[in-house]
Structures are given as structure tokens and as C-alpha cells.
Specification:
It contains three helices and eleven strands; from the N terminus they run E-H-E-E-E-E-E-H-H-E-E-E-E-E. By secondary structure, the protein is of the alpha+beta class. The longest helix is centred in the first third of the chain and has 23 residues.
């Protein structure tokens, strides 16, 4: 089971305070998603203990079989929860400078820049190694991407796998209308988990919270 939750925070314009608000919102999303997943095991008022690896990747101390990842950008907070190692990244759709695209994204075209950035961020969060600065890096085949953008007009989420470009839209599990309008959310997860995509199977459902 894979769940992605997103919510918007009311920001103050004070950087430190806003970061704290977004971080708290991510943790609130996680607590609610865990409770919905297993009400008897997870109480939203007493979430499980979160620890961090030496490189800063968060994990549950007492639940090694449950994985999660946080991201926030602008006013948007995102949490992904699943049964396999994963990483999620959210970025506001924006123009990325030529210098940044040349230095970090292999000189990709502007329309692809935000997606490429979120792919690298989500992969780095999944492995726990952080953002990859090698401009020539290619994600190994055993990992799959799932990118979503909000289409407010048609009330759908456009879902694309990086390698197979498989698109799903209009299902009851799609993201809420306008839930993250103006942003892109990208998830990276092992193909072995069978959650998103394998070489022979179509994408599995993703529940939006």
C-alpha cells in the first residue's frame, strides 16, 4: 500500500518559522496517514519514534517494515508512506537558471528541469545519500519514478513513469482537485516493491490522502 498526502500551510514570511510550520505539517500528515492505515496500531496523538541515519534519512525505530519520506516547497507539505524504501520531493514549478541546469541537471531543457530536479531529490532521499550533484548520473533501472502534476481544469492527476511514460488519470484515487496546483511531486521507489511499475505490469493504485 502506498499513500501520498499533501497539504498547504499558512506561511508568515519568516523563514525559520515557516520551515517549522511545514515540518510540523509533514509530521501531522504522517500521523494521520498511519492511523488510517492501522487504527489499532497507530494513535495520532502518540506517533511512533522517528530516528535518523548518520546522513539524516528519517526512519521508524520500532517499525522497520514501514517507510516514509517528507518534502516541502513553498507552502506545500508532502508525505509519502509505503512498505518499501522510497523518497518523495515536491517543487514549485518555476524557471531554473541555465547555470543550475548545466551544473546539476546535465544541461536539460527548461521544460524538463523541475522534473529532473525532483527525480534526483527523490532518489537521494530514498537512498539516504541526499541530492546527487553528478550531472551525468542516471538512476539505476531497478528504481522507478512516478511524477504527478495537478490538472485543475480536468480534475485529474497526470501520472507518468519516467521510463515507460505510462499515464493514468481520472481514477477515484487521483489527487484532489488543485491539491498541489503549481507544484510537481515526484516519488522514487524500488521496482522490486511492485508498488508503482515493473517491466511486465501496469502501474498500481496510489492513494492520495
Amino acid at each position: 500500500m502506498l499513500t501520498i498526502g499533501c497539504a498547504r500551510a499558512e506561511l508568515t514570511g519568516k523563514a525559520a518559522e515557516d520551515r517549522a510550520r511545514l515540518s510540523l505539517l509533514c509530521q501531522t500528515l504522517l500521523a494521520k496517514m498511519l492511523h488510517e492505515r492501522s487504527p489499532a496500531l497507530f494513535d495520532p496523538s502518540s506517533p511512533p519514534v522517528i530516528c535518523r541515519t548518520e546522513l539524516g534519512k528519517p526512519y521508524f525505530r520500532d517499525h522497520p517494515d514501514i517507510f516514509f519520506s517528507f518534502s516541502h516547497s513553498g507552502e506545500l507539505a508532502v508525505c509519502a508512506l509505503g512498505n518499501a524504501a522510497l523518497g518523495v520531493d515536491a517543487e514549485r514549478k518555476r524557471v531554473i537558471s541555465d547555470g543550475v541546469r548545466r551544473r546539476f541537471l546535465g544541461g536539460c531543457a527548461q521544460p524538463d528541469a523541475v522534473k529532473r530536479w525532483t527525480e534526483r531529490e527523490s532518489y537521494g532521499k530514498m537512498t539516504g545519500e541526499g541530492f546527487l550533484f553528478d550531472e551525468n548520473f542516471i538512476v539505476p533501472h531497478e528504481f522507478a519514478y512516478y511524477s504527478a502534476v495537478s490538472d485543475v481544469k480536468n480534475n485529474i492527476a497526470e501520472q507518468k513513469n519516467k521510463e515507460k511514460s505510462s499515464i493514468r488519470s481520472g481514477s477515484q484515487n487521483d489527487c484532489p482537485n488543485g491539491a498541489f496546483e503549481g507544484y510537481m511531486i515526484t516519488l522514487c521507489i524500488s521496482r522490486a516493491a511492485g508498488t508503482i511499475m515493473t517491466d511486465t505490469e501496469p502501474p498500481h493504485e496510489i492513494t492520495w490522502y
